[in-house]
Write a structure and sequence with these properties.
- The complex is a heterodimer of chains A (232) and B (224).
- Chain A has helices at 40-47, 69-74, 91-101, 107-117, 133-145, 163-178, 190-196, 219-231, and strands at residues 2-11, 14-24, 29-33, 55-60, 63-64, 76-80, 151-155, 182-187, 199-204, 207-213.
- Chain A is α/β, with parallel strands linked by helices and 232 residues long.
- Chain B is mainly α and 224 residues long.
- Chain B has helices at residues 2-21, 23-42, 47-80, 82-88, 93-122, 130-155, 161-188, 197-221.
- The longest helix of chain B is centred in the N-terminal third of the chain and has 34 residues, at 47-80.
- The chains are: A alpha/beta (232), B mainly alpha (224).
- The interface between A and B is medium-sized, with 29 and 24 residues.
Chain lengths: 232, 224
Amino acid sequence: MIQVRGLTKAFGPKKVLRGIDLDVGQGEFLTLVGPNGAGKTTLLRILATLSRATGGDALIGGVSVAEHPAQVRRSIGLVSHRTLLYDDLTAVENLQFYGRMYDVPNLNARIEEVLRQVNLYYRRHDAVRTYSRGMQQRLSIARAILHDPQVMLMDEPYTGLDVQATAMLRAVLQELAASGRTVIMTTHDLELGLEVADRVAILSGGRIGFQGPAKGMDVHEFRRIYAEQVAG
Amino acid sequence: MNFLRKVAAVAWKDLQAEWRTREVFSAMFVFALLILIIFNFALELRAENARVLVPGILWVAFTFAGMLGLNRSFIQEKDRGSLEGLLLCPVDRSAIYLGKMLANWALMALVAVFILPVSFVLFNLSFGALPMIVVVTALGTLGFAGVGTLFSAMAVNTRAREVMLPLLLFPVAVPLIISAVKLTAGIMDGLAGAELARWWQLLVGFDAIFFTLSFVTFDYAIEE
């Protein structure tokens, strides 16, 4: 579903990505971990067509993100630590806006469906600024899945969430994983990342240093590998 | 039709959000009103000098108040992180430009709707000239919002973004502002259409050229 080949990105003289090769299959959940500045967000931004690669290319569903960004945008949903929502609008108004932009058919029914999915239907007519951080993040997921994208890109979705909100978001992520969507999630939390993923990868120094199946991997072993990769 | 629906969605979203807070409109209106009042007292306007000075004062009020709105147009999106959501939408970026431009124009036009009658009363001007001045105001603010929306998108990615917009916009908008001031003055003086023809041509020409340029180049202006 996602093929990344020789992807590089430089900001002036600073090379952030130094030749990323990555394959993520249809319906696979990949967790990408790495220290600050490793290039996780940059990689997701390139896949989301928000930033251009310096070299190499990435294909999503066989479509190049560099050559056909508008076509790629239709098939992806992005959740980041920023909600991409309008605080002064209600949940329904936010979703109506994005639904119109994505030409979502039967929009009102779909809005009700996704709001129930993230357990926010009862607050649908409240302005987003009145929501807690956890509720905003759940609404952000509703926004990202509104147009039923095949690929979900999640950039540190747990940032700023308390324990309860993290547990609710984890449940939503598990539903996403079960829905057959292809998901790439970046996180600093190795345990959470390991728990929901099919496969984990470690990005360090602009390169993928390790990747392997998440199922059956012990978290202590994963921590050890992570520490080695980051140190090396 | 689909393109126009996207344009309408962006414009409606901006106006809906503004309606909730009225932050930008209030700031624009109060600023424009203060300009009128300050100039009224500073220049001690009387009937004989009002017609010479009022066109300039009006356009200072419209453009400076408009600058406040244009500055907030993309900065709000950037600061709350919704700009990325907007850019992620699978639409032609020119639809985003047009939608934002229409919302900016609507706010400038709304300020003008309140400011024009106030200025006519304040400066004791004849209301007979009002309909044609409304046309000039509509075209002038359209051109200003058109090029201003493009520069607002460019400035939002710079460090001194709020300072950058006026520095970029006013030099480019000089022909527009001059033609709008000359037309407003000419209409107040009761000049015939033929005598003002070249200013009409400049105003409409500016609108057409810069609207087309902004429409075509917006995709590059909004890039990271």
